[in-house]
Specification:
The longest helix is centred in the N-terminal third of the chain and has 18 residues. This protein has 14 helices and 8 strands. The relative contact order is 0.10. The model has no long low-confidence stretch (mean pLDDT 96). A hairpin with a 3-residue loop joins strand 6 and strand 7. It folds into 2 domains: 219 residues, Endonuclease III, domain 1, CATH 1.10.340.30; 107 residues, Alpha-Beta Complex (Nucleoside Triphosphate Pyrophosphohydrolase), CATH 3.90.79. The strands form 2 sheets. Strands 1, 4, 5, 6 and 7 form a 5-stranded mixed sheet that branches. Helix 8 packs across helix 11. It is of the alpha+beta class. The structure holds a DNA duplex. It holds the Pfam family HHH. It catalyses: Hydrolyzes free adenine bases from 7,8-dihydro-8-oxoguanine:adenine mismatched double-stranded DNA, leaving an apurinic site. Its EC number is 3.2.2.31. Its cofactor is [4Fe-4S] cluster.
Length: 342
DNA sequence: GACCCGTGGAA
DNA sequence: TTTCCAAGGGT
């Protein structure tokens, strides 16, 4: 691992921020100002999610709920509808809870330090550092995937970034490098660097504004960084989806459990099956609907079943209009699309 | 520390 | 088609 002297650190800050001021992504909507609410919403949306995907969601969300008080007062259905399709829905519920803490419990007085921000639901080490540095000028490194990638190459850090304890290694190495005058810009500059000249695949290191600081490139081993172990592939789960209409043509839904995958969302009743030999109704499609989550792959066979009249506690019929108003997970939209086409 | 939690784009 | 992964956090 490389160790920079004070002069190198100061030169790096200057070169990095000079480039950032010239070529940084200052057009991103959440960079219009450093209102902590805007920063928090954007950071929650950006967790494990691409910038291009988030932009539309962010603008829509801020238009509908411009202040932390608006979000705190909003019904959860509205928050989830605004989040619909973005995934990782616990982020939306945590953001909602965090807004209630700030607006109600703290009466609008934002936590400003890294430690206090950490206490908000949905705010972990990265997000606390991002909000603290960008909105409140706290001098802390916001260590995300970009940060790992950039500094693993610059400093030739060999630790596996997939392991939680590696965060400490990076923190120790980089905390002294964060620019104390512009910590928020420093962190965002690293992110911009990590998605451009120093991106994951096909980086353009030769034209990087910090080429001279890149130890991995200097040694011809840049393609070996960052060190990261692979994830496991999703396991297959097979279901039949019960398609059941009442006399009005409303469609039967079932509310999912309060915990676990797609917690509290409405979908068609899903029943696990070992094979399509077990299908209990009229098979509606030749091929199954498939949907991949981060750790599971669903294979879904829609089957038409008779309306028995009796409903379980967690079941309800919804009209077309009611379905349109619900926040539904992507997999349910896929099922609806398939029913429309068959 | 290991596992859980969504989605869409790229190669 | 398959695989990887993108501004992580909760349990």
């Amino acid at each position: 691992m490389e160790k920079w002297d004070q002069q190198t650190i100061e030169n790096f800050r200057k070169d990095l921020l000079h480039w950032y001021d010239k070529e940084g992504r200052n057009h991103l909507p959440w960079r219009k100002n450093t209102d902590p609410y805007r920063v928090l919403v954007s950071e929650l949306m950006l967790q494990q999610t691409r910038v291009d995907t988030v932009i539309t969601y962010f603008n829509r969300f801020m238009t509908a709920l411009p202040t932390v008080q608006d979000l705190a007062k909003a019904p959860e259905e509205q928050v989830l509808k605004l989040w619909e399709g973005l995934g990782y829905y616990s982020r939306a519920r945590n953001l909602h809870r965090a807004a209630k803490v700030v607006a109600f419990d703290l009466k609008g007085a934002w936590p400003k330090s890294y430690e206090d921000l950490l206490t908000l639901p949905g705010v972990g080490p990265y997000t606390a550092a991002a909000v603290a540095s960008i909105a409140f000028h706290q001098v802390v490194p916001a260590i995300d995937g970009n940060f790992f990638r950039v500094f693993s190459r610059l400093l030739k850090i060999d630790d596996d970034i997939a392991k939680p304890k590696t965060r400490r290694v990076f923190y120790e190495a980089v905390a002294p490098i964060v620019d104390p005058k512009r910590p928020g810009d420093f962190n965002q500059a690293i992110m911009d660097l990590g998605t451009s000249y120093m991106k994951t695949t096909d980086p353009d290191t030769l034209h990087s504004p910090v080429l001279t600081y890149n130890a991995a490139y200097r040694d011809g081993v840049e393609d070996q960084y960052p060190v990261k172990t692979k994830k496991k592939k999703p396991i297959l789960q097979r279901y039949q989806a019960l398609v059941r209409y009442n006399e009005e043509g409303d469609l039967l839904y079932e509310k999912r459990p309060q915990t676990g995958l797609l917690a509290d969302f409405w979908t068609l009743p899903l029943r696990p099956i070992a094979s399509i030999e077990e299908l209990e109704g009229v098979q509606l499609t030749v091929k199954p609907i498939t949907h991949v989550f981060s750790h599971r792959k669903w294979e879904i066979w829609p089957v038409q079943v008779e309306d028995t009249g009796k409903l379980a506690d967690n079941q309800r019929f919804f009209s077309a209009d009611e379905q349109a108003a619900l926040a539904l997970p992507k997999v349910q939209h896929k099922i609806l699309q398939e029913l429309k086409e068959s």
